[in-house]
Amino acid sequence: MPEKPQPPKGHQPKPAVPPAAKPAAKPTVAPAAKPASPGAAKTQGFLEHRSHRRVDVKVAIQFQILEDKKAMDKLKSEKGVTKDISLEGLFLRTAQDIKPGDVFRLEIPLPGQKRPLFAFAEVVWVKEGKMFFKNDAGLKLMMMPVEDQEALKAYLDQAGK
To answer: Please, what CATH class does the domain formed by 53-159 belong to?
Structure first.
């Protein structure tokens, strides 16, 4: 039997790792593709990625910042006006100090509804507002009762025609 070749001097041989002992590669999972929005369009050179069409709706809403204990204790509501609304979120204009990450309890009175719709939303972005509005903000709807979701969808379907 021939002799095994020896490694050069100063060379440390790598220990043999049996194939079964090697860590298995993690399976990759592609994110689920969102359906293209019927209203998907290029916006200032960027493709619109929202899965629900926004409808221009100017509605005076009331909100409470849930982290503001004093306002919650007094049931004090702040005011704002929407620029547009979708099933996922809304554009809010307000004179109040707000910041990304704030969570609001919203009351959204829509024309033709007997009572305002209720939802919880998170502030995703804030930028300086125009005129007497201190802030413009993008809010993501987080929780809304099913009946309010259905009422909002019906309203948006009708308003978007």
So the answer is: mainly beta
